[in-house]
Amino acid sequence: MHLNWRRWFGIANCVAFSIWGNSTIAQITPDTTLPENSRVTIIDNIINIEGGTKSGSNLFHSFSEFFVPNGSTAYFNNIQSIQHIIGRITGKSISNIDGLIKANGTVNLFLINPNGIVFGKDARLEIGGSFFATTANSVKFADGFEYSTTPQTTPLLTVSTPIGLQFGANPGLIQVQGDGQGIRSRTTPSPAIDTNVGLRVQENQTLALVGGDISLEGATLKTAGGRIELGSAGSNRLVSLVPTENGFSLSYGGLQNLGSIRLSQQTAVDTTGDGGGDVQVTARSLKLSDGSVIETSTLGSNIGGNLTVNTLDEVQLSGVYSSPGAEFPFPGGFYAQAEENATGSAGDITINTRLLQVQDGAQVSAVTKGVGRVGNLTVNADTVELIGNNNPFPTGLGIQVRGSTNATTELKINTRVLSLSDGALVSTDTFGSGNGANLTVNATDSVQIKTSSALNSQAAQDATGIAGNLTINTPLLRLESGAYISAGTRGNGRGGNLTVNTNGGAVELTGLLTPDGELPSGLYTQQDTSGAKGAAGDLTINTRTLRLDQGAEISASTFGEGSGGNVLVNATESVQLLFSSAVGALAGKDSTGRAGDVTINTELLTIKDGAEVLVKSEGLGNAGNINLNANFILLDSNSRLNANTTSVTTDPSRQQANININSVGLVLRRGSQITANAKGINVIGGNINISTGVLAAFENSDITANSDEFLGGQVKIKTQGVFGAQFRNPPSLQTSDITAIGKTPDLSGTVRINTPDVDPSKGLVPLKVDVVDVARLVDDNICTKTANSSFTYTGRGGLPSSPTNTLNNDAVWEDWRLTAVPTRGGENNSSLTSHPSPPPTQIVEAQGWVVNANGEVILVANVPVVTPHRLRNSPFGCQPAIAN
Question: 3-class SS at 24?
Answer without folding.
Answer: helix
